[in-house]
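Protocol step 4 of 5: obtain the predicted structure for the target chain.
Materials: sequence only (see below). No template structures provided, no constraints applied. The aim of this step is simply to have a reference model before the mutagenesis design in step 5. Sequence pasted as it appears in the construct record:
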Amino acid sequence: MRIDLTDRTAVVTGSTGGIGFAIAEALAETGATVVVNGRSQESVDAAVARLRQSPSEPDVTGVAADVTTEEGAERLVDGAGRVDVLVNNLGIFGAAEALDITDDEWRRYFEVNVLSAVRLTRLVLPDMVERSWGRVLNIASDSAIVTPAEMIHYGVSKTALLGVSRGFAKAAAGTGVTVNSVLAGPTHTPGVESFVSELVGDDLPWEEAQREFMRRHRPQSLIQRLIEPSEIANMVAYLASPLASATTGGALRVDGGYVDALLP
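Step 4 output (C-alpha cells):
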C-alpha cells in the first residue's frame, strides 16, 4: 500500500514534540503539507526546522496558538487555510490521588483534552463536508477504556473523547468525511519518562525503570514495552489517507495489546 496525501493539508495540534511530532513527521513523508502547532513561537519554529531537515524536503509550516481557547483555535485554523486532515493530539496527563483532584483540575483536563478537539472539529468540519473529503483524528488512550487509578481525571477525559469522535462521525455521515479515535497505549515520550520516574523512582537506569513501570503499572501489555511514537504515527497516517475511506466512527487501538477486550 502506498499512502499519498499530496495536495492535502494536515494540522496536528501539540506537535512540537512527542507523539504529535512523530505524527507530523509521518504525514509530511506522505506528501502532505503539514502545519505544526504549539503554544510558543520558539517551539513551533524549532519543530518546523527539524522536520525540514528530512531529505524528502517536506512542505511544513507552523502556527503558534493556544487551542485551549476559542481565539487560539481560530488563529490556528485561519493560519492553516484549507484543512483536509485535523489531528487533535494535544493532551495533558499526570498522576494524582483520586480524592485530591480539585474541580479546577477536572475542568483543566476537560478544557485541554476534550474541548480543544471539539472546538477545532467544529471549525473545520463544515468545510470538509462541503468538499466531500476530510479526516478528523482524535488521539485518545488505552486509559479511555481501562481507567488508571493514579489518574482518573485523565482517563475520564479520554473516555469523553471517544464519545466526541463517534458523535462527530455521525454528524458527517454520508459525506466522505471520516472521524476516528486512535487509542494510544503507553508510549515512550519525554513526558512519560518523567511520569515513569514519579511512579518507580528516578534512581534506576531508564531500561530498568521502563520494565519496572510496565511490570507494576501496565502488566496487561502484550508487547511488554513502551510503544514508540512512530508506531502511533503509522496508524494515523493510514487513517488520514484515502485508503481508510470506509473506517469512521471507530476507536482503533495501537496499545500493544494492553486493553483486555475484543471491542474496541
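Step 4 remarks: The chain has two domains: 9-187+230-254, 190-226. The CA atoms of residues 92 and 113 lie 7 Å apart.
Proceed to step 5.
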